[in-house]
Design brief:
With 219 residues, the protein is α/β, with parallel strands linked by helices. It has a domain at 39-186: 3-Layer(aba) Sandwich (Rossmann fold). It has helices at residues 62-70, 91-94, 96-103, 120-126, 163-168, 172-185, 200-218, and strands at 7-8, 23-24, 50-54, 77-79, 105-111, 130-134, 153-154. It has a five-stranded parallel β-sheet, with helices on both faces. Strands 1-2 form a two-stranded parallel ribbon. The relative contact order is 0.18. It is found in: Golgi apparatus membrane. Residues 7-168 form the Exostosin GT47 domain. Pfam families: Exostosin_GT47.
Length: 219
Amino acid sequence: MANCIRALCNSDVKQGFVFGKDVSLPETNVLSPQNPLWAIGGKPASQRSILAFFAGSMHGYLRPILLHHWENKDPDMKIFGQMPKAKGRGKRKGKTDYIQHMKSSKYCICAKGYEVHSPRVVEAIFYECVPVIISDNFVPPFFEILNWESFAVFVLERDIPNLKNILLSISEKRYRKMQMMVKKVQQHFLWHPRPVKYDIFHMILHSIWYNRVFLARAR
């Protein structure tokens, strides 16, 4: 274990993740293996009426704090627990409200659960929503290649009470640029039935290769 390259979704520096050796994997939910790009995209930046959105189970200590400060507190902040699925609807249709909220939001809150990672990071990129990552000690995937600060917002866990002010402090021009970058990097987080150049499959392999070369040089 000391010498191998570990590929981990739980890329937590406090849980032994080693920079330059281990690889951070993006956690993804594939709703349709036959058509993994189903529902990709979202509304243009000018038509996103929701400032920030989150919905999810109360895993871990952080999400209850998020809901304590923001659930039903502000009309611009659509912060929920787990969104109920309508009766008699299939899995795909049951996700419709959640997906439409992401497609209509400027910022999508990616709060850690039991571990530092969350599938919402990739979901936000998939639906062209700027991810807001609230997870201290999280190492984002492909950080050796991608400039995450150009398309994501990182908020310290202790700053949750000030979340709206932090988002409003980002100028419209800056937001538009970040949202454009989300669309630009989106190709690197997509699965295909057969791998496509620069997609998530190739990016994961590249991260492993990159760290293997780095380790070889270090020795």
